[in-house]
Amino acid sequence: xxxxxxxxxxxxxxxxxxxxxxxxxxxxxxxxxxxxxxxxxxxxxxxxxxxxxxxxxxxxxxxxxxxxxxxxxxxxxxxxxxxxxxxxxxxxxxxxxxxxxxxxxxxxxxxx
Length: 112
What we know:
Elements: E1 20-27, E2 30-37, E3 51-65, E4 68-72, E5 77-80, E6 87-102
Antiparallel strand pairs: 1-2, 2-6, 3-4, 3-5, 3-6
């Protein structure tokens, strides 16, 4: 057992960066991290080679994919399959996301 301290907690991105990503746990079959985007900020990620689950722990935004879009806030759980374009937009409040990748982030090929 391991308690993952700080997972899903808001962290201000480093000056000069659009957002903040911290990987807290990495195993061959999954990884867990926190992704933060400040209010009014830009989501600069590209599609990933792994499936992912987002759990919104703080903030409000919209997620946009080729299949549609949805407003998200604390408690929302979002599944994004590997390779699907997705982006958080209209970040109205500092957004903190607990992210679970399966298998581990970047393990299926080049990191996107």
